[in-house]
Task: structure prediction
Amino acid sequence: MANDEMSKILEQFDNLRADKYPLEEYNNIGKRGIRRLDGYEKASGYAEYTMDVQLPGMLYARFLTSPYPHAKIKSMDTSKAEALPGVRAVLRYDDPGLPEVADLGGHVPSEEPPVKKITHFQGEEVGAVVAADTEDIAEEALTLIEAEWEERPFNLDAEEALKPSAPLTNPEAFPDGNLESEFIETLGDVDEGFKEADRIVEFTSTRLLHTWIGPERPCGVFRWNGEYPEFWVKQQRPHVAKRAVASWFGGIPMNKTQVHILYQGASFGGWTQLPWNLGGMYCAAVLAKRTGRPVKWTFTRREDFYGGEMDEGYYYCKVGFKNDGTITAVKARGVFANQQWPFGPTLHFIENTKVPNIHGTRHQVRVNKGPNTAIRCEQNPNCHTLTLVFDRVAYELGIDPTEVALKNDGAHGHDMTWLNERKAEMGFQVRDSLRECVEKGKAAMDWDNKWHPAGTKRLPNGKMHGLGFTWSHEWEDSAGSSEVAIRIERNDGTASILAQRCDCGVDAETSYCQVAADELGMRIEDVYFRPQTDHGFFTMTPDSSTNMSVNGYAIRNAARLLKQKILEAATMPRAVTQQGSFPPAFPDMKPEDLDIKDSAIYVKADPSKRMTLAEFVGPSFGQGPMAEYEILLGGERNMWSEPFFAYSYQVQVGAYSDKHPRPRLTRQAHFCEVEVDTETGEIEVTKVVNVNDVGKVVNPMACEGQQYGGTYMGVGRGLTEEIVHDPVTGVMLNGNLLEYKFATINDVGPIDTILVETGMGYGPYGIVGIGEDIATVVPALLGPAVSNALGIWIDDFPITPDKVLKALGKA
Amino acid sequence: MNAQPIDTSKYLCPYCSTSFDTFEALKAHVIAEHKTQPLPKPEGLIRLTINAQAYELEVEPNWSLYYLIHDKMGLTGAKMFCDRGACGSCTVIMDGRAILSCMTLAIECDGKTIETVEGIAAANHPLIDAYVKHHCMQCGYCTPGFVVTAKALLDKNPNPTDDEIREALGGNLCRCGTYPQHPKAIAEAAKKL
Result:
């Protein structure tokens, strides 16, 4: 039987089609009201974060930060800092014990200096790190460091940096100029497409820098337990932290490093993605070794503004379309500042429209600001263009933007007929995801009654009323590998999922339990996620744009194997000992005659014959769990006396794989309603409707949390969030939460969250992810909403009141 | 003002400044007249009540209340998110008012009564269960601050309107955007009080 299960599991490794073996009945998956595993800890204040860790004798480390946007240290005098009472060590950039470079985190092994000598943005950690008895002393010591800097000219703006007269942003890494790369993506022939068009519109948009704001600041703790290290790190990927640490100091065996990833305090990708994000850990490791004390390093809130989202830049868009709304060509060029990986601006036209002619260019330009990376998420540049282009077409034609979306839905230049054929081929039910999303969303917004031509509806309160709509596909990468084990405890028959913890707040651990409970036939309260991070199972974390699509399979695989083990053991003698043979729990039965429900094994033909898992596994006494049966010597090993433990894994390719591209099948649609005050320029978001086709819902409240939570983040990004640098000095001016404004409870009106289940996801049970989507789609949605209110396009994001007044000719 | 030279050979009563020749005489005077412990309170010593427990603590003048409770006492429910009074994550209740512990000096808390999220949870306040039920947390870092703010609101206003709840929570920042769930949980907890 187990072999059958294994062959099914192996078959599922090909995930380029519908789930072949979903469950027939769901008792916990999709159920509302399941108590979240981390809920009590987080509400009561007992949830522990890295920032809360205190160890005996622990020192505190703080970094010197650069006062200049581009400079090199000529010399540094740290003697006064070293003499300050309470300072235990100062680590300098020119320390002979430091390597030139080390693997300091990121997607792939990075090569970064732990303490830099040259800085490329103001506020960068550079020059020295101080370990002291308290944070206050460390901070004071930093002020006593005297550095002589060679200031260099700098760039803050991507377009300016491309001019021939611009200074070099980073002459060491990019000596030939500030254009790091040019990337072009194409489909069809845009020149032909523009010829076929009835109309052509061109526009330019800008997006200013914004960032993640992780509530827990970057931090970590490192201690040496004799020869080998133990460390606590705020990082979305425990395995990356282990890999990096194991490569340090000439190599430390992986099995002798111990990592703790506590609750994360959210990072939305950002910090974890950066190639220096373990630099603090490296310095803490050196300082801990030299002082013989544990060392905690921290960033201040100001220092957490270390990098930003990689949609900062300029968007030059040109769209050709027919009078009925059919788009014939899209050409776009993005000039992006400090993009860590090239993304945008036209990928979403390729992946989820039938637009046959597309030409996208992206220019990665280096400027002297922090590194820009994927912050919930890398698709921001694509969503920005898709929203503005589609809504521009609807605006120009004066037609409902939902119609333009439905008219152009498709994939890779093909229409819905083609896409529906692919759905059928892959074994999915053929449903029109976008149409379902749009219909549900329109009803919730009362769209048909509220829709009006741009700039035509003034409300009784004097404000202008606007409606906005946008859409996209799901873009979960769903690539990854995951190892998971599940174990049944003796005594009470409860189940423990063993996997690496890396909680980002998406309630993934409850979702894992829902999957395991349904697969094992157990009650949800009998399944628990072990809050351990380093028992060796390499589990995909809620990161790399994927979680349940990979982990869900791994947990399911392990649960199915474990269930088979339990049912086989139930039909075999529990033990054969010197005292005799103990009969099976279910004599004369075959495993297939049995099933498990509500944490009890029962006979399918006669459910009154049942035994709870607790009774089945038996109690433990002083001599261990099986001593009751296998008294002393001679116990024959069998299925029952083996630990009830199964492990499994999942490996799957993702949508971004060039080798296995696959069409995106599910869609999302978002609607918003705004009121714009034409006297003050203020924009009030009075209602938002999020509709996401997640394929299949596992944890409804967690999904909804990503919808309304993403909306709040998205509205902030669209209307208020921008990092401001002084153009003269290059200094960041608003690196704090008073002057960098994200949305409070009072900044968004009611949010309707609607989940659609078409089953057309590539994950187990047909799921797709949702965590990245809404915060990424919603920012640009404010553009069409404001244009519908005012009859004027404001393409400079965030759309702050001063820009509204300027557009109205009032400022 | 004419400064009086201090006679260092005398023992001064810290309460009434009467001087005595010996320490024993001062001690007898303080017990008899002031009905209290004879030794003057050392500088930096504060007496306060935290979560219904009396504490006598020596604090440095530059310590914030946040540093005292989080770092020194291990009451880590108060969280530092913004580090300058902008986010509400370090909120505690002091003498019935929700205050920001990162903006309050510990040395000024002598004689105060303080309630932290741990105390609210230990008292089985219905807010905790309501918060769990309604998924008022995602990453959870700001959640204790919300719970404390909500508790202070319910203490003053046991039946708040939706607008009153939103106004009370206006100073609590949540980057995950859990906001819509809080009024639901607080209204439900209010019903159970």
Summary: The longest strand of chain A covers residues 327-337. DSSP finds 22 helices and 31 strands in chain A.
